[in-house]
């Protein structure tokens, strides 16, 4: 029996049918091993030795593979034809060797670009060895990403509370988004005027012409600066004689687009279908793995992770046949078109993304696919066929027009095109913005010296606009242009930025969140080299050279680590004050915008003498006054016009009035407190308030939304069994329904307003069925004895996330911190910080026995630990133990 290893079970099922008896096809379910998420998985001091580990699911898959291999006659590694696929095959082979599962059986590596019977059978005839250069490139990339993430992220946690992680490519992509936002904020709009003349030919056919010159001076789009200038030109045109000065006709050929690569597919799917990069890749994966058509499962497209634009000869022949059948010989070029990949990494430049069988037209396969799959297949099919069709031929016409009045002269121009032969446009057209609009305009027939009648002269005021925010499609395009990352990683990179809450997606535009801007400002200040576009692109080029066997992968790692580790070392003495000074300067346009009245943007609006600065608090970043605690002015980081004084009372000068509640006649306002924006009804000692739920921005809140929030909690209905009410509301941990003391979470804030009684009863029942009791969670990681206080230090997973436990002190991990990455140093700092923030409460100590009071806070718990038998913890060390804890607490806050 021959054992064949592929990635996915769908692929395994299909290929098993193709190969028939004598073959057993097993799925690895992607990567079977990875670097453990803890310190030391990559060891630079040991020539970058790497430790690999299989998770529970991976271990089970490997056990099945090992069992099958032990009784096999041959092992065939048939994972995907790219760097990651090569790495999976290498991992499987290493495990088989480590487990001594191979007893002399030959091991072969085969690759196929499409899951069709012919492609698979042909691949089986051409086995090869594992490509060590591709594996080396994978190892280098994985080590680089690990070293950056596991060394840079802890710096962020210590020096920039609220930051979650940093990554080699992720951070550079975030910088692109933040840099664009900075461009928008610092953009100075410029006034300009346009003058458009509506004219008519001698036959009465009308067209538009724009002013391009006046009194011998050329006028560009922005050259008419004021209404007075525009008015002068308009007055002249109202009196002028107008005629055709010159006509230029020029044939223009428009060539088709090349077939899809990974990045161009993501871009076009975004423009044409509104799909995210991640969704596009999910759908493409399913098209690649295949659908059941005519009783057989067949792959519908070739491999969808590629930089290549070439198509195999048999594919070209199939495309040309379809063009001849569907469009005729005039649409078929004499010779096939040849495209060249722009990507630098040749080793991954496989065939372009195309249908495996061009005779399967979109209308024929749509009934076998889900709607989104069908739309994506249609897009791929049309782009592929169009890439081999004849060019479109357009007749582009430019008409120069002269307007004269005495000694005055004004020049106008009209442009347009006529499609003489549509070529590939008969099947596939992708918009080109202004250029496309220009080409689709048609001009009436006219000749030189023809007099033109004046119908209307229009003068319009305009203002220049800042550059648009990135969409996923335009960001992918920019990253590809800069050589940052690789197409197969773009979707995952964008998803990480959203998961980390560094960016949000609003109307398909990527908007950086405050925490994302803080991270980039920090990295630009103290690790600038590692978020530079050229540096990242050069590193990608080095990885490509590794995969081409041109340079040694460990040499690349050594050169990188020497500089990077030195940069990390330099930040150990970095004070929070230094960090805040740097962030204040870099983010000034964002957090201290010009007030428009000539005053200092950083002067405190409450006390007048203090200076505003970024502050780092338990719940993230905010702006505060330097005169604290005398002046308690605070607001959110972004100066969005909604300010607050940081107290639980009325808002500050920036309070935004949303309207009046029709039921009570009270004013509804939007405010911002220490912990974020909220809405408030009326004034007084205890007015009704509601914080904005996660995902709701202050800019999107109007009176209707505010009143909905203030209406909470609301009664959903009466429970049919108990007769008690069920209510819905928003709490500290998100939206919920409540019945008789039982809380059940709702998946989204929107559902809290319309959840019905049946859904609420079901959620309550499910919550009760889950049980209320909670046993002490098992340790995720044991770190050992506390270095100064003694007693075990562990990392555990609790109801509200992972935490560090020492004695009776429980310190929650910063959001986003991987529990497996916690070291003793980090744990000690977190425990000390928690202990320092939880002093003993005298009133409680009096009411309870001494031992219980000691367990109520971190410091007392530490003393309890110190009073254990002398053999374990000598009493003489009790006093000394407190000092390191105090220093650790300061260090955790960034003071030392």
3D architecture notes:
- This protein is of the alpha+beta class and 896 residues long.
- It folds into 7 domains: 129 residues, Rossmann fold, CATH 3.40.50.140; 150 residues, Topoisomerase I, domain 2; 137 residues, Topoisomerase I, domain 3 (Distorted Sandwich), CATH 2.70.20; 107 residues, Orthogonal Bundle (Topoisomerase I, domain 4), CATH 1.10.290; 119 residues, no CATH class; 56 residues, no CATH class; 115 residues, no CATH class.
- Helices cover 37% and strands 21% of the residues.
- α3 crosses α5, α6 packs across α16 and α8 packs across α12.
- It starts with a strand and ends with a helix.
- The C terminus is likely disordered.
CATH T-level fold name of the largest domain: Topoisomerase I, domain 2
- Please give the domain count: 7
Global Rg: 34 Å
- Main β-sheet, in a few words? 7 strands, antiparallel
* CATH architecture annotation of the largest domain: Orthogonal Bundle
* Large-scale geometry: globular
Q: pLDDT under 50 segments (min length 5)?
A: 344-349, 432-439, 639-654, 840-896
What is the percent of helical residues? Answer: 25-40%
State the main characteristics.
896 residues, alpha+beta, Rossmann fold, Topoisomerase I, domain 3, seven-stranded antiparallel β-sheet, 37% helix, globular
């Amino acid at each position: 029996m021959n054992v064949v290893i592929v990635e996915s079970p769908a692929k395994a099922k299909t290929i098993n049918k193709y190969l028939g008896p004598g073959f057993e096809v097993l799925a690895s379910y992607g990567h079977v091993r990875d670097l453990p998420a803890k310190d030391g998985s990559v060891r630079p001091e040991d020539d970058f030795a790497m430790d690999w580990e299989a998770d529970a699911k991976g271990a089970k898959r490997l056990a099945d593979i090992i069992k099958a291999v032990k009784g096999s006659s041959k092992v065939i590694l048939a994972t995907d034809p790219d760097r990651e696929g090569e790495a999976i095959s290498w991992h499987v082979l290493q495990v088989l060797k480590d487990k001594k599962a191979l007893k002399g059986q030959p091991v072969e590596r085969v690759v196929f670009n499409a899951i069709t019977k012919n492609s698979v059978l042909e691949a089986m005839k051409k086995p090869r060895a594992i490509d060590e250069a591709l594996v080396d490139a994978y190892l280098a990339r994985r080590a680089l990403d690990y070293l950056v993430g596991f060394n840079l992220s802890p710096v962020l946690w210590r020096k920039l509370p609220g930051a979650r992680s940093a990554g080699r490519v992720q951070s550079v992509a975030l910088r692109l988004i933040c840099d664009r936002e900075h461009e928008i904020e610092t953009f100075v709009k410029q006034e300009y005027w346009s003058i458009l003349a509506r004219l008519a030919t001698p036959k009465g056919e009308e067209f538009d012409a724009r002013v391009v010159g006046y009194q011998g001076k050329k006028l560009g789009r922005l050259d008419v600066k004021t209404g007075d200038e525009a008015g002068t030109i308009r007055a002249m045109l109202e009196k002028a004689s107008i005629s055709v000065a010159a006509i230029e006709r020029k044939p223009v050929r428009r060539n088709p687009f090349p077939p899809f690569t990974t990045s161009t597919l993501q871009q076009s799917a975004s423009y044409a279908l509104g799909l995210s990069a991640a969704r596009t890749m999910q759908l493409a994966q399913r098209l690649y793995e295949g659908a059941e058509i005519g009783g057989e499962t067949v792959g519908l497209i070739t491999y969808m992770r590629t930089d290549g634009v070439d198509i195999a000869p048999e594919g070209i022949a199939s495309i040309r046949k379809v063009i001849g059948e569907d469009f005729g010989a005039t649409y078929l070029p004499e010779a096939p078109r040849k495209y060249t990949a722009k990507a630098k990494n040749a080793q991954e430049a496989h065939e372009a993304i195309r249908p495996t069988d061009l005779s399967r037209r979109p209308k024929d396969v749509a009934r076998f696919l889900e709607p989104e799959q069908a739309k994506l297949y249609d897009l791929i099919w049309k782009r592929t066929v169009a890439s081999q069709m004849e060019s479109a031929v357009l007749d582009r016409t430019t008409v120069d027009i002269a307007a004269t009045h005495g000694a005055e002269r004004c020049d106008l121009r009209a442009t347009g095109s006529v499609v003489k032969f549509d070529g590939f446009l008969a099947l596939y057209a992708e918009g080109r913005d202004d250029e496309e609009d220009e080409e689709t305009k048609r001009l009436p027939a006219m000749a030189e010296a023809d007099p033109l009648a004046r119908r209307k002269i229009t003068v319009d005021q305009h203002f220049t606009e800042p550059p648009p925010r990135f969409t996923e499609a335009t960001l992918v395009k920019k990253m590809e242009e800069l050589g940052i990352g690789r197409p197969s990683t773009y979707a995952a990179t964008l998803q990480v930025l959203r998961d980390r809450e560094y960016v949000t997606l609003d109307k398909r535009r990527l908007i950086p969140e405050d925490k994302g801007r803080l991270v980039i400002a920090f990295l630009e200040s103290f690790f600038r080299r590692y978020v530079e576009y050229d540096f990242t692109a050069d590193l990608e080029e080095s990885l490509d050279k590794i995969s081409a066997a041109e340079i040694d992968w460990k040499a690349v790692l050594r050169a990188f680590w020497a500089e990077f580790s030195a940069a990390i070392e330099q930040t150990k003495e970095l004070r929070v004050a230094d960090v805040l000074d740097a962030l204040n300067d870099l983010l000034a346009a964002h957090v201290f915008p010009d007030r428009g009245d000539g005053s200092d943007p950083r002067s405190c609006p409450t006390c007048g003498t203090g200076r505003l600065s970024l502050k780092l608090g338990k719940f993230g970043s905010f702006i505060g006054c330097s005169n604290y605690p005398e002046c308690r002015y605070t607001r959110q980081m972004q100066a969005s016009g909604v300010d607050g004084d940081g107290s639980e009372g009325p808002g500050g000068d920036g309070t935004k009035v949303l309207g009046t509640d029709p039921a009570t006649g009270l004013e509804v306002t939007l405010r911002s407190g220490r912990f974020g924006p909220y809405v408030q009804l009326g004034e007084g000692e205890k007015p009704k308030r509601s914080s904005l739920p996660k995902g709701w921005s202050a800019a999107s809140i109007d009176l209707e939304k505010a009143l909905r929030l203030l209406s909470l909690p609301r009664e959903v209905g009466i429970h049919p069994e108990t007769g008690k009410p069920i209510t819905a509301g928003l709490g500290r941990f998100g939206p919920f329904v409540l019945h008789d003391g039982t809380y059940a979470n709702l998946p989204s804030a929107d559902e809290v307003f319309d959840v019905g009684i049946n859904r609420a009863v079901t959620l309550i029942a499910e919550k009760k069925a889950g049980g209320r009791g909670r046993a002490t969670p098992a340790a995720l990681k044991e770190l050992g004895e506390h270095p100064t206080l003694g007693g075990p230090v562990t990392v555990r997973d609790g109801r509200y996330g992972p935490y560090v436990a020492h004695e009776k002190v429980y310190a929650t991990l910063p959001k986003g911190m991987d529990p497996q990455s916690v070291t003793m140093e980090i744990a000690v700092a977190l425990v000390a910080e928690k202990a320092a923030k939880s002093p003993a409460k005298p009133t409680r100590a009096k009411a309870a026995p001494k031992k219980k009071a000691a367990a109520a806070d971190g410091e007392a718990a530490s003393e309890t630990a110190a009073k254990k038998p002398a053999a374990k913890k000598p009493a003489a060390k009790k006093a000394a133990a407190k000092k390191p804890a105090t220093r650790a607490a300061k260090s955790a806050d960034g003071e030392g």
